[in-house]
Amino acid sequence: MSAESSEGAASIRAVRLSKWYGKVTALQDVSLHLGPGIWGLLGPNGSGKTTFLRMAAGQLKPALGEVTVCGLRPFAHPKALRLIGLCPEADAMYDELTGLEFVTSMAELSGFPPKEAAERAAEALERFGLKDAMERRVGGYSRGMRQRAKLAQAVVHDPRVLLLDEPLTGTDPTSRAMILEEVRRRAEAGAVVLFSTHVLPEIEAITDQVLLIARGQLVAQGKVHEIRQLLEEHPHHVRVYTSEPRRLAGLIVDVEGIVGMQFAAHGVELMTYDPESTYQVIAQKIVEHDLPVESIVSPDASLEALFHYLVERSTAGAGTGADAGVGSGRQRMMQAARPGHGGQPQQAAQAGPQGGYQPQVQGPGGGS
């Protein structure tokens, strides 16, 4: 059965998805499957995030491979497009329209009759704090208000897939809280929300499920702590704040699994490939020897640390992505698409039978 023949559950699926512009490869061989919930889309500037969002939104046609939304290919497919809500990063709006006229017109384009479209538009604008400004022209809105109007048009038709490209740009703390609450509400109702940002605390505040695209390739997918556990070449750092760092160091220096140790401000910092057992040993030593300890933290357990590790890992790869042009990557993909080489794209490796995934990290060796 073809992807177009039936509307499936809320999902985004990409299979060996690639896009290039002339000799520049923007996205290469990306396979993934996202089910309901909030997913953070991370990556350096120019990594391919916006290109992926635009293909998922049906604005760009893949050069190779396929992307489906709720089982439908979105490009030039009106039924699929009605299932998608997009808040683009670009601030290009119809400044001569009022907020209500703008969002109403977007609802009408999704197939709603004028009266229902206007009702939906008013409700969506109110949800984003624009009730008192909906009769004003968009051209007179502040940057934050324009951003909220874009979000209102993205949700006015109750999409099953919500694509957000830097949705918090220009917003104040109150507006951010309002936006994040609405995003959570829609995810809890069963929508797939793909939230692209370069501000890592924004993702940490709303989800622990992330995708990282670097140099045009998907380099990791999964929960933050699961991905961190797969990064074997980077030992975990554990920092123990204590007034007796030398005494603590003497007690744990020979512990198996600890591969490095250094004195830090107000304590000791350890490097280990087995953080769970290291935490247990430290706790045991603290109790047995009555060591004064203020706290135990892991400075690299954050999303920011994970992001830098993965970007560093991808940069060590064999020259793929936007700065690599064409060459062997495209030739390999072309060969895979020719008869005799499995002309249909392969299923995403991490997609399970029930739409789940396995955490994965891609590295210089190419495997997980």
Topology:
Blueprint: E1 12-21, E2 24-34, E3 37-42, H1 49-56, E4 64-69, H2 78-81, E5 84-87, H3 99-109, H4 114-127, H5 143-155, E6 161-165, H6 173-188, E7 192-196, H7 200-204, E8 209-214, E9 217-223, H8 224-230, E10 236-242, H9 245-252, E11 258-264, E12 267-272, H10 275-289, E13 293-297, H11 303-315, H12 328-337, E14 360-361
Parallel strand pairs: 3-7, 3-8, 5-6, 6-7
Antiparallel strand pairs: 1-2, 1-4, 8-9, 9-14, 10-12, 10-13, 11-12
Helix pairs in contact: 3-4, 3-5, 4-5
- The termini sit apart by 30 Å
CATH architecture of the largest domain: 3-Layer(aba) Sandwich
- CATH homologous superfamily descriptor of the largest domain: P-loop containing nucleotide triphosphate hydrolases
Helix content: 25-40%
Output the number of helix runs: 12
Q: Care to describe what's here?
A:
With 368 residues, the protein is an alpha/beta fold. It has two domains: 12-224, P-loop containing nucleotide triphosphate hydrolases (Rossmann fold); 234-304, Alpha-Beta Plaits (2-Layer Sandwich), CATH 3.30.70. Helix content is 34%, strand content 24%. It is built from twelve helices and 14 strands. It has helices at 49-56, 78-81, 99-109, 114-127, 143-155, 173-188, 200-204, 224-230, 245-252, 275-289, 303-315, 328-337, and strands at residues 12-21, 24-34, 37-42, 64-69, 84-87, 161-165, 192-196, 209-214, 217-223, 236-242, 258-264, 267-272, 293-297, 360-361. The chain has a seven-stranded mixed sheet, with helices on both faces. Strands 11-12-10-13 form a four-stranded antiparallel sheet, with helices on one face. Strand 11 and strand 12 (267-272) form a beta hairpin. Helix 3 runs parallel beside helix 5 (143-155). The longest helix is centred in the middle third of the chain and has 16 residues, at 173-188. The relative contact order is 0.15.
